[in-house]
Amino acid sequence: MRVADLREFDGSGALITVAGDVTVHEAVRTMAASSIGAVLILDDQDKVRGIFTERDLMTKVVGKELDPKTTRVLDVMTTGVKTVRVDDAAVDCLELMAAGRFRHLPVVDADDHPIGMLSQRDFVATTLPKALALTTQTARATVSKRYQPFAIGASVLAYTLVIVLAVRLFT
């Protein structure tokens, strides 16, 4: 599976960026309005200069008691940002995020211009339904065949207990 195959990533959504000279307060308002956890800061050539995340807010602003209304994003953003391309393997991206202990990963085109942002939520949205379906299939194939009499007996017992409790509570 490639980045382009992730359910939540289609590369067509508006990429949210802020200028480096905006205040942290303004950046956080932008993030809140867009329901996102990170914004990119671009350089003069529209390439990734840095990223400002919820973690940056907590550790570099709140944790150091800086004033968000006067602190510039440029002064607290994360630099040296790793990027990936749409044809990169999704599992490699997830491993990169895990190894680097970050949750957001910009996706860039062949000219290194950002075209989207991956988050760990994108991986969950893609893989969770598949994992649940596989778990359900496995459970049906194994549990229902091996433990069908037990499951029927447990269901009858549970139903009986509910009826007995209901009768006692309401009489």
Key attributes of the depicted protein:
single chain, 171 residues, alpha+beta, CBS-domain, 2 domains, two-stranded antiparallel sheet, 50% helix
Description:
- The protein is an alpha+beta fold.
- It has two domains: 3-124, Roll (CBS-domain); 128-170.
- Helices cover 50% and strands 13% of the residues.
- Strands 1-2 form a two-stranded antiparallel ribbon. Strands 3-4 form a two-stranded antiparallel sheet.
- Strand 1 and strand 2 (48-53) form a beta hairpin.
- The N and C termini lie far apart (59 Å).
Number of helices: 6
Query: Which regions are unreliable across 5 or more consecutive residues at pLDDT < 50?
Result: none
**DSSP strand tally:** 4
Total count of domains: 2
- Structural class by SSE content: alpha+beta
CATH topology (fold) name of the largest domain: CBS-domain
Overall pLDDT level: 84
C-alpha Rg (nearest Å): 24 Å
Global outline = elongated
CATH architecture of the largest domain: Roll
What is the CATH H-level superfamily of the largest domain? CBS-domain
Query: In percent, how helical is the residue content?
Result: 40-55%
Main-sheet strand order equals 1-2
Estimate what percentage of residues fall within beta strands.
Answer: 5-15%
Quaternary form: single chain
Question: Main beta sheet, described?
Answer: 2 strands, antiparallel
- Could you give the order of the helices and strands? HEEHHHEEHH
CATH class of the largest domain: Alpha Beta
